[in-house]
Amino acid sequence: MSGAVLLVDDEKPVRDALGQTLDLAGFDVTRAGSFIEAVDHLSRDFAGCVVTDVRMPGKDGFELLARATSTDPDLPVILLTGEGDIPMAVRAMADGAYDFLEKPCPPRRLVDVVTRANTARRLTLENRALKARLAAGDAAERLILGASPQMAALRDACRRVAASGADVLITGATGTGKDLAARVIHQLARPNQPFVAVNCGLLTADMVRRTLFGSDAGPGAFLRADGGTLFLDEVGAMPLDQQVALLHVLEERQVTDRDGRPQRLDLRVISATHEDLQALVADGRFRADLLYRLDVVRVELPRLADRPEDIAPLFRAFVEEAARRTAFDAPPLSADHVAPLLSHDWPGNVRELRNRADRFVVGLDPSGAQEGTRGLSDRLDLVERALIEEALARHGGQVSAACAELQLPRKTFYDKVKRLGIQLDRFRQRGG
Ligand SMILES: Nc1ncnc2c1ncn2[C@@H]1O[C@H](COP(=O)(O)OP(=O)(O)OP(=O)(O)O)[C@@H](O)[C@H]1O
User: Fold this and answer.
1) Residue limits of the Sigma-54 factor interaction domain (predicted)?
2) How many whole angstroms separate alpha carbon 38 and alpha carbon 66?
3) CB 3.0-4.6 Å disulfide test: which of 10, 78, 225, 399 passes with 230?
4) Which of 71-85, 160-174, 284-298, 361-375 has the weakest average pLDDT?
5) If you average pLDDT over residues 322-346, what whole number do you get?
6) Closest ligand 1 atom number to CA of residue 181
7) Digit-coded pLDDT (tens) for 109-165
8) Given this model, what pLDDT does residue 237 score?
9) Ligand 1 neighbour 302 (Cβ under 6 A)
């Protein structure tokens, strides 16, 4: 997990001693006795750093530095210098050397410098991979992570559904990615158009009516989503009388505006539920005709525990993302961290895994592996930020609703948003 080191020194005893120190510190060490032996290992995706002696018979360490920087200017090269070589080594820093170490080098210093170099290297490679993914893939590829067959099938399903224009029902347990799948379908089919999300589970009957059809406060979600996508989350919680009204709009594809004039709608409706709608129909809590109308195309999301091969890669991706978001370093992940993830059954699915990654990055991991590496105020900031962001997400970015839920005066809320670097825009519903 600590990364690779290409260790180059012509003197075997030095190579052995330094190599052993690095082995013990957990690095994956490749040893080379000369420039010629070393060059074959240099590549643009080498996942670590080079530690090379300066003085070697034949081509020396400076020539290896030149070759490494021409292969990849971001590959860290650490020079091992004798006493007389320091002025040259200092000049070599200007030519792109990462650092230099004077021989004999204390093990602790060697490990520190290599750890720093490899952290920088990991970030470089991650950024490159992210940029490549962003440049290469469509929204399904960019946003839906996971190499399991179920996730490949989900990406395909989103593409097919997007191309079809049909209304969609997304089913799956909490945190499996229903909201994400809806946004991906929208992005693939109607990018740059409004995406309006209504969470039927959070609203009273009267609020559902006003949110969907409008009120004195403004036009309803149908009109706001016109041209784009209306996402009805937790549709199983919709009150029965609103189900009738919804069915009517879905069939007629028109609503009346505030002046009572009929307006034709061009939008896709995506509904989502974690409930068994058929069972709700049997219970008399959901209309069979509405279910039939919503369920034109169905996308089912698998539980995380049913695709265990995705758990560790997703956790890594979320740790890296949390590190970028919080400006904390991503702590190294060892097998000790990954094993408990695989034995857990993840009732909260991907959301739970993502929250666990957030806690891991700030040292609140339940294994205690990172305990003590962050100060108390850093940890409290993260908890505060998570609670505020969750409230904003729940209320579609509406500050007054988030303040009410968190019982915070508006000014205090804005002070915290500023201090914690929360971007309110991220939570505002487009078109909403
Ligand atoms: N395959 C995936 N790749 C990347 N992120 C994912 C994936 N699946 C889910 N997520 C992330 O997990 C979190 C939960 O997903 P989401 O909100 O879409 O779940 P949900 O099924 O709508 O949950 P709920 O039913 O509780 O509303 C989000 O942060 C989402 O981006």
Assistant:
1) 144-362
2) 13
3) 225
4) 361-375
5) 79
6) 18
7) 999 999 999 988 988 888 787 777 667 678 998 899 988 889 999 999 999 999 998
8) 93
9) no
Q: Does residue 235 form part of some domain? A: yes
CATH number of the structural domain spanning residue 65: 3.40.50.2300
Residue where a domain stops, chosen among 108, 134, 160? 134
DSSP H or E segment with residue 331: none
Distance from the CA of 175 to the center of ligand 1, in angstroms? 5
| Residue having the nearest C-alpha atom to atom 16 of ligand 1 | 177
CB of 375 closer than 8 Å to CB of 344: no
Long-range contacts of 219-222 (CB under 8 A, 24+ apart): 219/257, 219/258, 220/255, 221/196, 221/432, 222/249, 222/255, 222/265, 222/267
Q: Could you tell me if 171 and 223 lie in one domain?
A: yes
The three-class DSSP label of residue 59 is coil
- Do 171 and 71 share a structural domain? no
Q: Torsion angle of alpha carbons 109, 111, 113, 116, nearest 10°?
A: -140
317 and 295 inside one domain: no
Question: Which residues make beta-bridge pairs with 299?
Answer: 170
Torsions phi, psi for 89 (to 5 deg): -65, -35
Pair 127, 219 in one domain = no
pTM for this entry: 0.62
Q: What is the CA(347)–ligand 1 centre distance, in A?
A: 13
The DSSP element (H or E) to which 283 belongs, if any, is: none
Output the CA 26–ligand 1 centroid distance in Å.
34
- Mean pLDDT across the chain, nearest whole number? 88
Domain of residue 402 covers 305-427
Does the residue 432 lie in any domain?
Answer: no
Domain boundary among 83, 113, 134: 134
Give the chain's domain count. 3
Pocket test for ligand 1, best of 143, 154, 170, 179 (most atoms within 8 A of CB): 179
> Which pLDDT tens digit goes with each residue over 44-70?
989 999 999 999 999 999 999 999 999
Does the Cβ of 396 fall within 6 Å of ligand 1? no
Does 350 lie in the same domain as 291? no
Cα separations (Å) of 145 from 102, 130, 131, 181, 202?
Answer: 44, 12, 15, 11, 28
The whole-angstrom separation of Cα 305 and Cα 297 is 25
Integer Cα distance of 156 and 151 in angstroms: 9
Residue 174 beta carbon below 6 angstroms from any ligand 1 atom: yes
Instruction: Specify the residue with its C-alpha closest to ligand 1, atom 13.
Output: 351
- Alpha-carbon torsion angle 88, 94, 97, 98, nearest 10: 120
